[in-house]
Amino acid sequence: MLDSPCVPRLCFIGPLIGVNPGYVTTPGEGLATHFAQIGYPVISKSSSPNRYMRFLDIMTMLIRQGHKVDIQCLQAYGGRSFIVEDMASWLGRLFGQRIVIVLRSGLLPEFMARYPHWSRWVLRRADAIVTPSPFLARVVEHFGFTVQVIPNTVDVSIYPFRYRQHLVPHLLWMRTFHPDYNPEMAVRVLARVRKAVPEATLVIAGQDKGTQADVKLLVHKLGLDSAVHFPGYLDTAAKLREGNAADIFLNTNHVDNMPVSVIEACAMGLPVIATNVGGIPDLLTHGETGLLVPDDDDKAMAETVLGILRNPDQAGRLSANGRKLAEHFSWEQVRPQWKQLFADVMARPASSSKGIS
Q1: Angstrom distance (rounded) from CA 212 to CA 297
Q2: In what order do the strands lie in the sheet with 228-229?
Q3: Same fold: 10-153+330-347 with 156-327
Q4: Residue 19 in contact with residue 47, Cβ under 8 Å?
Q5: Measured between alpha carbons, how far is 123 from 133 in angstroms, rounded to an integer?
Q6: What pLDDT score was predicted for residue 271?
Q7: What is the domain partition of the chain in residue ranges?
């Protein structure tokens, strides 16, 4: 519950689409829920899965209810969504809101390098800039901004921990079927592993964003149909079921920031093998809380899988340390940082003109 009755009225803006069947709960949506549960006045938009309807929903809400908001907590992803982020922060300033911009996407460095003036223009409206990863903080600080790192949160209590030492070759990949997440690499890894361990299997799960058919074609081409299972999008119950059945988690992304899926895997005691990209080396310490391999190097990842299957001491260390790492991202650990940030922002004079004209 609240420590004080004097709390800011919050508005969380972004793609808050996890309420729709088959969609992952976004970090911004999770924050909105957490603060509403402890008694903060919260408005959140938008849950529409259609980007154009989401834009209309956000703009309409800000025009109608902007005067009821003290702090706008804007989830920034770059790309086409930066138009929304530009307009929402501009409207927020018109209504005298404090603006907290939360940088979310591992693609933001590329976007900011391509559009530096636009990026600076929008970020100058912020009373505070937050990112869950030191990786993005370093990028944005290079542009001359001060950034606070507040990690993503995971409800660790819902993820049962199983200590894994003597592993079986059951691999789990869980993300979205999108080129940025490189699911084909997981299939190539399995093909290499099965040359040494024929009983190895792979569960490859997530929402299809355009590449699932290509991944299934690759599975068939490599003769892995009986070894690969596609369960689709995993709700919480299915995620726990598949996570408990697996013994190794693969993260094959080309780009990344601070993936909640990796923290979830750590919470369940799954040793994580990940590509060394973006914010991953800030999240995982090689040899202690995870194992890192070069981007798109399926040979290196397969060799790492085989190595950990043969090394129970290393597997046990990664399993135990992964759970300890995940516990640092519980809401109880992260909440004081957000509450202090909001208090600091409210203590500053509001600006109605910064970055508007």
Answers
A1: 20
A2: 228-229, 201-205, 170-174, 248-251, 272-275, 291-293
A3: yes
A4: yes
A5: 17
A6: 98
A7: 10-153+330-347, 156-327
Give the 3-state DSSP-derived string for the chain, with helices as H, strands as E and coil as C.
Answer: CCCCCCCCCEEEECCCCCCCCCCCCCHHHHHHHHHHHCCCCEEEECCCCCHHHHHHHHHHHHHHHHHHCCEEEEEECCHHHHHHHHHHHHHHHHCCCEEEEEECCCCHHHHHHHCHHHHHHHHCCCCEEEECCHHHHHHHHCCCCCCEECCCCCCHHHCCCCCCCCCCCEEEEECCECHHHCHHHHHHHHHHHHHHCCCCEEEEECCECCCHHHHHHHHHHCCCCCCEECCCCCCHHHHHHHHHHCCEEEECCCCCCCCHHHHHHHHCCCCEEEECCCCHHHHCCECCCEEEECCCCHHHHHHHHHHHHCCHHHHHHHHHHHHHHHHCCCHHHHHHHHHHHHHHHHHCCCCCCCCCC
Is residue 140 within 8 Å of residue 103, measured between CB atoms? yes
Q: Tell me the pLDDT tens digit for each residue of 244-292.
A: 999 999 999 999 988 999 999 999 999 999 999 999 999 999 999 999 9
Q: If one looks up domain 10-153+330-347 in CATH, what number appears?
A: 3.40.50.2000
Arithmetic mean of pLDDT, 8-22: 90
| pLDDT on residue 351 | 57
CA distances from 322 to 253, 259, 269, 327 (A): 19, 14, 6, 9
Give the Cα separation of 48 and 42 in Å (integer): 18
Residue 182 is predicted with a pLDDT of 97
The string of pLDDT tens digits covering residues 199-225 is: 999 999 999 989 999 999 999 999 999
CATH architecture, domain 156-327: 3-Layer(aba) Sandwich (3.40)
Q: CA-CA distance, 38 to 218, in Å (whole number)?
A: 47
Q: Residue 6's pLDDT band (boundaries 50, 70, 90)? A: confident
* Sign for the pseudo-dihedral over CA of 277, 280, 285, 287: negative
Is pLDDT at 342 greater than 80 in this prediction? yes
